[in-house]
Every structure is written in C-alpha cells, then in structure tokens.
From TrEMBL:
Catalyzes the first and rate-limiting step of polyamine biosynthesis that converts ornithine into putrescine, which is the precursor for the polyamines, spermidine and spermine. Polyamines are essential for cell proliferation and are implicated in cellular processes, ranging from DNA replication to apoptosis. It comes from Lymnaea stagnalis (Great pond snail). Keywords: Lyase, Polyamine biosynthesis, Pyridoxal phosphate. This is ornithine decarboxylase. PROSITE patterns: ODR_DC_2_1, ODR_DC_2_2. Residues 47-283 form the Orn/DAP/Arg decarboxylase 2 N-terminal domain.
C-alpha cells in the first residue's frame, strides 16, 4: 500500500559547498515571489542541529544530551536528534508521547518537571518512563501513590549570583538548606531517589554558574548517600548557549564544566551524567523571513541625535519609519516576551543610508512590537526582512492570534551531512524527505508499528516531482 502526501516541508538536500544562509533566504524569497506568495517562512538547517550534536559529543564526552523538547518540538528536529541517539527531557504527557512515537527507549527519556499532573504521572508509569525529577514533598507523595517504582531525581536550587537570560530558580529547585529534610521524607515514604539535578537558568551568561552548581549537587549527593540511597545519576540541566552572539560560548562553558565534573564526579565513580540542553541545539538552526506588509512614515519628535547622514540631513530632521511585518510577538517573536530575547532585523539593501525605524507584528495589539528602535535602510512594502537565531522558544509557543498564520518551515541540509547521517537515502532528487507537523505526518509514521527510524523511512521513499510516495 502506498501512502501519499504532498511535500510541504521537505528536507532539501543542498549540494556542497552550501551557500550562506543569506543566499538561501534570498533564493527562497525568489521562489515565493514567483508564486506571488508573501507569507512569513523559516529556513531550518538540519545540518546545524547535527553539527551541534557532534560538537557536544566531542567537547562534553561524559555527558549525554537529553534535548529539552519544550524549546522547539519540531518533528524534524526531534526525529533527527532521536536518530543521532540523543535523549529527551519531557515536561508533560504530550511531550513524552511525541518522543515515544519516535521509538526512543525509555532510558533516554527523563520526565523533568518537578510539579506533575497526576494523570501525566500515570501515563509515564504506563509507558515505563521512570526517571523523573522532584523538588517538594507533595510530589513524593503523589509519585509514591501513582508510580512507586519511579526513579527519582532531586532537583536542587543552585544558589549563586550568576547572570542568566531566564531565571528558573523562582519556580523550581529545592534550596540546599532543605535537601536533607526532603530526602529524609523520601526515605520515610520508601521512594527510590537515584540522582541529583539542577538547572542553572536558561541562557547562562557566566561559565562559573555550572561549576558552582556541580559543587552544590555534590553536597546534595553526599547527603543522599549518607541516607542510604543508591545514587547513580547526575543531571546538569540546560542553560547552554545556542547562537554565536551569546554572551558566552559553549566552549568556554565546557572547559569549566568538565573540570568541575572531574573534580566532584570523577569518571571512577561510574555514574551516568546527563544534561537537558534546549536552545543549544536549535537556536541557530532557524532563520525567519518576514514580509513588510505595511509601512508608516512619521516625523521624528525626539531630539536624541547629533550626526548627519550623507545627504546632510540631521537625524532629528529625518523621518522615522514604522514597518509592519507578517509575524510578531503573538507568533514566533513570543520569545521577546517569554524568553527576554532581542530580535535583530537584517535586510537586503545596498543603500548606505540608515533611518530610525521600528518593526511591528501584524496583529491589532499595540504590544505587538518586535523592535522599538533600530537603524535600517529605507524599505518598502513587499520587501523582506530576516532574523537569524530564531529556533529556540519561538515557534513552540507561537499562536495564531488575530487569525495570523504561523510561518511555514523549509528544511535544508548539506549533502555531506545528510549522507553522513543517512547513508542509504535516495539521492536521485534534491527534494527527498519530509516530516512535518502532525497534520502532514505520513500515516505510515503516525500509526504503528509506531516507530521507524528516519533512516528506514528515507530508504523506502521514492521521489516524484512534487510529492513523496512511501512504498
Ligand atoms: C527543566 C528544564 N530543563 C531544560 C530546559 C532547557 O533550557 P535551555 O533551553 O536553556 O537549555 C528548561 C528550560 O526552561 C527546563 O525548564
């Protein structure tokens, strides 16, 4: 039987050398314009995700990455990471079920939400997803009742003054002063505690956050050992940077982190060390292109400038342009609200002139402002802007408020990387593989036997013009 579906979001295999992302976006825009299409779209470079995985394995060899899929639940990203052998950090029944559908063994899944809904715990129990975090007594009581054989990981609150993009300590983590009391409660309830975890905060800006947290995890670990728990796992959470412009690089973090791990949890201990990176894997893989759907030019009414532009017009005399684009803070740019992100607009223009500009989303809400003030060449309605580093905490929480569509996603991968991960794929056509959102998901993958690896699926695909046929 053949299952057909149209190739809305195929992975496009690009022959090496792969053009730069700016060129790829420009090519895609040309295709769009030739079809009279002006919708916002993302380009996702699957190869970028693969390269991140390879860098992780090389630089942090003792730590198994469990991708925090809350960051971006895109099926292509999840499938790619699953096929590469990554583990997954899930926070809900929905996320667990998505990961199980990809055939990921339960030893590679941690239910890393310290405050879980009862029915979700039952779901985890039914599917043997037994590693889960806790940071409070009530959670222990629930787990004892609903999943008494669960393997619990104590999430501690790393206490430090380190700067982070998003502080998670306000919501989660057992303070070091309360660790002994909570562990004694676990003992009393006969709950199996087998690990310690922490999360330094999302978007860590100083590497020492990790060394401090590792030493505090060691303190908690010692208390647990003294109480008689068989401790076998350390979970160092997320917080790793995902884009080149981050205040601190992954390399800087790992040099300090590896030292701390070797000091407090040396290899001879024979324990399992995992991490829950989210933005690290996906931030830089996505570039979002938006169309300027409207423009207003307003007189400047503030006197904050001193220079002249090349036409001798002082900045105070310049007009200021308001650009309205077709994705905004209710869509992919929700990261501005939820993730304290700063968007950086790029345009295609040779003009050296720059004007005070602001960039707004498409909805009718005044809050829907992407950039309050920046300097851009003058742009016209119908032209495009693009935003790099749009993969983390963007499309995952985007809504369709005001009926505004979410951007479509176009997947690309360099031939070299694709061949490396899927050596058996069909090479006859450039456009040869696809997995997208649930609705477009090929029925052969959505129903049982519920998992086929991407590699198997790809080898059973034959490509014809604009559609893909699963044999
Ligand atoms: C429990 C947990 N693990 C991992 C992550 C991923 O963090 P990051 O994207 O900073 O790596 C988060 C993010 O909020 C989280 O809450």
């Amino acid at each position: 039987m053949k299952h057909k579906y149209s190739s809305i979001s195929s992975v496009e295999i690009i022959a090496d050398p792969m053009p730069c992302m700016t060129q790829l976006i420009q090519d895609k825009i040309e295709q769009f314009e030739s079809r009279d299409c002006e919708d916002a779209f993302c380009v996702c470079d699957v190869g970028d995700v693969v390269n991140k995985f390879k860098a992780w394995k090389e630089l942090l060899p003792r730590v198994e990455p469990f991708y925090a899929c809350k960051c971006n639940t895109d099926e292509v990203v999840v499938k790619t990471l699953a096929d590469l052998g990554a583990g997954f950090d899930c926070a809900s029944k929905g996320e667990i079920s998505q990961i199980l559908k990809h055939g990921v063994p339960t030893e590679r899944i941690i239910y890393a939400n310290p405050c879980k809904q009862k029915s979700f715990i039952k779901y985890a129990a039914k599917h043997n997803v037994d590693m889960m975090t806790f940071d409070n007594e009530a959670e222990l009581v629930k787990v004892k009742e609903l999943y008494p054989t669960a393997k619990m990981v104590l999430r501690i609150l790393p206490v430090s003054d380190v700067k982070v993009q998003c502080n998670l300590g306000v919501k989660f983590g057992c303070h070091p002063n309360n660790v002994a009391k909570l562990l004694k409660k676990a003992k009393e309830l006969d709950v199996d505690v087998m690990g310690v975890s922490f999360h330094c905060g999302s978007g860590v800006q100083e590497a020492r956050a990790f060394s401090l947290a590792v030493s505090q995890a060691h303190d908690a670990w010692q208390i647990a050992v003294k109480l008689g728990f068989n401790m076998t796992m350390l979970d160092i959470g997320g917080g790793f940077p995902g884009q080149k412009s981050a205040p601190i690089s992954f390399t800087e973090i790992v040099s300090i982190l590896n030292d701390a791990l070797d000091t407090y949890f040396p290899a001879e201990m024979g324990i399992r060390i995992i991490a829950e990176p989210g933005r690290y894997f996906v931030a830089s893989a996505y570039t979002l292109a938006v169309n300027i759907i409207a423009k207003r030019t307003v007189a400047r009414d503030i006197s904050d400038a001193d220079g002249c532009n090349q036409q001798g017009v002082t900045k105070n005399d310049e007009p200021s342009h308001m650009y309205y684009v077709n994705d905004g803070v209710y869509g992919s740019f929700n990261c501005i609200m939820y993730d304290h992100a700063h968007a950086e607009a790029h345009v295609f223009s040779d003009s050296p002139l720059r004007f005070t500009s602001s960039v707004w989303g498409p909805t009718c809400d005044g809050l829907d402002c992407i950039i309050q003030e920046c300097r851009l060449p003058e742009m016209e309605v119908g032209q495009w802007m693009y935003f790099p580093d749009m993969g983390a905490y963007t499309i995952a929480a985007g809504s369709t408020f005001n009926g505004m569509p979410r951007p479509t996603i176009h997947y690309i991968c360099s031939q070299e990387i694709w061949d490396e991960i899927y050596p058996d794929h069909c090479t006859a056509k450039r456009r040869c593989e696809s997995m997208s959102s649930d609705a477009d998901f090929p029925s052969i993958m959505a129903t049982g036997p519920d998992v086929r690896s991407l590699r198997e699926a790809a080898s059973s695909i034959s490509c014809i013009e604009d559609e893909i046929v699963f044999a």
